[in-house]
Task: structure prediction
Amino acid sequence: MSAHRTKALQLCTRCLFTLAVIGVLVVASFAYLSLGLERLFTLDAARELARFFLSFFPPDVSREFLAKTGQAAIETLAVSAVGTLLAVVCALLLALPASGRHGSTRASTRFVLNLLRSVPELVWAALMVLAAGLGPFAGTLALAAHTSGVLGRLFADALENTPRAPAAALTETGAAPAVAFLYGTLPTVFPQLLSYTLYRWEMNIRMAAILGFVGAGGLGQLLYFNLSLLHQAQACTVIVAMLVLAALVDALSAILRYRLVLA
Result:
């Protein structure tokens, strides 16, 4: 038997063993959690699901509720935009030392970034609601805190992998470190930083709508209020508004990224 065939058999055996272990873990997880998935495939479950789904239609399209939904959508958009903007500023300030290029606090700064992004947005929102009260301000702070950690790590990695020659050349000619960064490093990495920012803004639009469930304002809070009162028609209108808002922001972000690539 050739060495190539022996290696292939060993690889096949490892694959089968890995699949068997994954299968055992999946079966054990279902058994441990006692999910009762078989109840989802009964006729009564299908009828209840259909009845619940149909109760959301037709959506409420009254002028008064549409105005309220539009105001909540603008609030959600503002929360996501301001939260992302604050996060970009904080992330850039933290990314400079975290990249190892500016200052000697690389390890401690990266620890701060890991801490910020390891706490989910909903947890940040719950903490900010306790600190700042109900409303969009708490949602803005929650998005800014978590997104600062995510963008800070991405920015730091991008800066760390950027060629050092342009900034070093400016420094050797007598330019200040800030000037060397603005004209030597930032232009090289700016398209990548902008792409990361737009992508996170897309995600923050959806998250800003969800944060309302913990009292952070916007469409999420309006949706939670109507679902709590079993106002399915109004809830359907809010859900449609969420989908439309997310689709518009996705399209706008895609256009900006496409023009950025062409540029």
